[in-house]
Amino acid sequence: MRKQGLMMLIGLATVAWGGLSRADVLSIYDVQSTTSDGDASIYNGQVHDVTGGIVTHKWSGFQDRVYLRDPAHPTWGAIMVKDSTVDRSLFNNVGLGDWVSLTDIYIEEFRGTTVLQYSPTLAPNVGYAVQSTGNPVPDPTLLTAADLIVPVDHAASEPYESMIVKLENVTAGQKDLGKAGDNYELIQGADIAWGTDYMNIDAGAPYDPRIVTGAQLESITGVVEQYTKLTDGWDYYQLCTRSAGDIVPEPATLTLVAAGLCLAARRRRKLSVEP
Q1: Model pLDDT, residue 3
Q2: CA-CA distance, 206 to 148, in Å (whole number)?
Q3: Structural domains of the chain sorted by starting position, each given as residue range(s) with its CATH number in brackets
């Protein structure tokens, strides 16, 4: 009985650590698809080992991010990892095509997006391992505007959170939308999704110069991100472009953009010489 009691205490200690729940090793699919409301992960606020996935994108902004994708799952198969370490120990030491697993990592819901927080403050024993390198980065998943539709449809959009996706044959519509005023419409038939270029390393603020109202795009590619803050009235998914190569205008649109840029330059010159 004493031995059984001791083993029970050890077992309880492995699932309750620092006030945070600790249980089985999870896949990205487990974290993302098991939800309490069709959106938020039931593992929110818990610490787990995560088998991880292939690094598909890295972004250094107001907080360094690494995006992982498990190609075994066409939906619920990607997740964002935020690196909060002082020396950027995860961000600086993994690259595209690496399969990265994580240990003792804190799972958090932030503004609607499920995030793995690589933070010693939240989980002192957090760690990672590069399981393999040189893996092919999965191709973008082809979606339609209906999959990322605004007004939001969580059931349609949530399975693609943090995945790299592509929309084809869309028209850029109204701009200056969303929480930061940097979203633009992507119109496809009767459906409208939203895009943004804040993560685009080649874009000028706040938009890529080819994103003009009425521009026809052969395709646009980016990372799916959710932004939800119901107290301010916001709840939407957005396609975040990563570089100039993610935006492919129709040839006629390039002419339109070039003409618009020339006209703008002439107006600036004219204003500069007027008394």
Answers
A1: 36
A2: 21
A3: 18-132 (2.40.50.140), 141-262 (2.40.50.140)
